[in-house]
Specification:
The strands form 4 sheets. This protein has an 8-stranded parallel beta barrel with strand order 1-2-3-4-5-7-11-12, surrounded by 5 helices. The chain has a single domain, classed as TIM Barrel. The chain contains 15 helices and 14 strands. The protein is α/β, with parallel strands linked by helices.
Length: 480
């Protein structure tokens, strides 16, 4: 195979990625407050709620289960899990801080010391093994109180509360964290405002105005976080985080090509343009006119956004998307995050996500050509149903193949001239799925004995992919 022995650049950041709400558990311990994930039920009902108007952010424990409450109990088992990460040779560990561990309601004047101390312990344990944390400030973990009192990111008030939170964690961990991300998959708010923007759409005709107003508030908050990071930790790097889905035209019909281009630009680059280039892109102005969107801005907002852009671009990559202007019935791909039509050249995962390694190379080149800033793949992986054999082994060759093919395409992109900082596959240890609340949708190199019904011992086991990824890291990507 071409370039099979080519190593990645020296200092490449190999690791894995998780989110606090999907693995920590301990949802009421340490004076933690309720966040959005805490009130989302498990199973297929979660996806229905995320896609339907009117969710009220209330729990109904008689009707639903809430797997995020215990998750995989990283809150008590973090030393064990970090030891596994170290055994694989992680250089970095991408994680998030639960906002409600630091400010339980989001509005307090003083932070919660129990929450701050917990992350001190986690960071210290990581540094014991030479693992650098890559910390997401907000990963679908907004305080429910801010949702109920202010309507989430609809309200300008939330900017003040987020800035307070960001400054507290930047000051507290300035000697422990070198890499920061602001909002996880910020553009996902276009499709899942409940998780990303902290509110549920009430009616379809109400969707556009509150969504883009909320984005503006997040852009301001992101710039304030960048400003604070540069002032408090000048040597640190802070990036944005985008859900990137390259979009292909189904054929060479110019109408389909144009439609695919417009869809890709709208979803993939709008939020990135503002955070990386420091200005609203020209193409969004027509969209605003056609949907009668008028943003409320304070004096100085645009100057702030222009002055404090991110240092690098991180993103998740799971699939591509194939589009045509007029979709025939029966040919849509319901499993993909954004749907689209079936791509006859691609296979799909157990959950219907189309698998497209070359799409990652396309993504890296598109991003780098557009922005000319360092890139970081902070999510990528295969959600699958793993089987524990009678001897206790988990032979996840399908996961090895998936990640291997994506690593090959990252190497090709580096040869293309892309500046790539690192790679942290998603769910390096099995955790609760964000979209469905399931444990059976497993991504990890480490198996966790927990089932969708909540049963299980929480015992950790190495999958076959564990030692394979360990060898990948040890060889800096030359042995795959």
């Amino acid at each position: 195979m071409k370039n099979e022995k080519m190593e990645f650049p020296k200092g490449f950041l190999w690791g894995g990625a998780t989110a606090a709400n999907q693995l920590e558990g301990g949802f009421h311990e340490g004076n933690k407050g309720l966040n959005i994930a805490d009130v989302l039920p498990g199973g297929k009902e979660r996806l229905k709620l995320l896609q339907s108007p009117g969710f009220n952010f209330e729990m109904d424990t008689e009707k639903y289960s809430y797997p995020n409450h215990e998750a995989i109990d990283f809150y008590h088992r973090y030393k064990e899990d970090i030891a596994f990460f170290a055994e694989m040779g992680f250089k970095v560990y991408r994680m998030s801080i639960a906002w409600t561990r630091i400010f339980p309601n989001g509005t307090e004047l003083e932070p919660n010391e129990d929450g701050l101390a917990f992350y001190d312990r986690v960071f210290d344990e990581l540094h014991k093994y030479g693992i650098e944390p890559v910390v997401t400030m907000s990963h679908y973990e907004m305080p429910v109180n801010l949702v109920k009192e202010y309507g989430g990111w609809r309200s300008r008030e939330v900017v003040t509360y987020f800035e307070r939170y960001a400054k507290v964690i930047l000051n507290r961990y300035k000697n422990k964290v070198k890499y920061w991300l602001t909002f996880n998959e910020i553009n996902s708010g276009l499709e899942m405002p409940i998780m990303g923007l902290g509110f549920a759409i009430q009616k379809e005709e109400d969707k556009y105005q509150p969504t883009f107003q909320a984005f503006h508030h997040q852009f301001v908050a992101s710039s304030l976080a960048v400003k604070a990071c540069h002032e408090i930790i000048p040597e640190a790097k802070i990036g944005c985080m985008i859900l990137y889905i390259p979009t292909y035209s189904f054929d060479c019909n110019p109408e389909n090509v144009l439609y695919a281009q417009q869809e890709a630009r709208f979803f993939n680059t709008f939020c990135a343009d503002v955070q990386v280039k420091g200005k609203y892109p020209s193409f969004i102005q027509r969209y605003f006119r056609e949907h009668s969107i008028k943003l409320e801005m304070k004096p100085g907002d645009l100057e702030l956004i222009k002055s404090y852009t991110v240092d690098f671009i991180s993103f998740s990559y799971y699939m591509s998307r194939t589009e045509m202007k007029d979709k025939p019935s029966g040919d849509t791909v319901e499993g993909n995050i954004l749907g689209g039509v079936k791509n006859p050249f691609l296979k799909a995962s157990d959950w219907g996500w189309e698998i497209d390694p070359i799409g990652l190379r396309i993504t890296l080149n598109e991003f780098y050509d557009r922005y000319q800033k360092p890139l970081f793949v902070v999510e990528n992986g295969l959600g699958a149903k793993d089987k524990v054999e009678e001897d206790g082994s988990i032979n996840d060759d399908y996961r090895i193949e998936y990640i291997r093919e994506h690593i090959i395409q990252m190497r090709e992109a580096i040869e293309d001239g892309v500046e790539l900082m690192g790679y942290t596959p998603w769910g390096c240890i099995d955790l609760v799925s964000a979209s469905t609340g399931e444990m059976s949708k497993r991504y990890g190199f480490i198996y966790v004995d927990k089932n969708d019904d909540g049963s299980g011992t929480l015992e950790r086991k190495r999958k076959k992919s564990f030692n394979w990824y360990k060898d990948v890291i040890a060889s800096n990507g030359s042995e795959i």
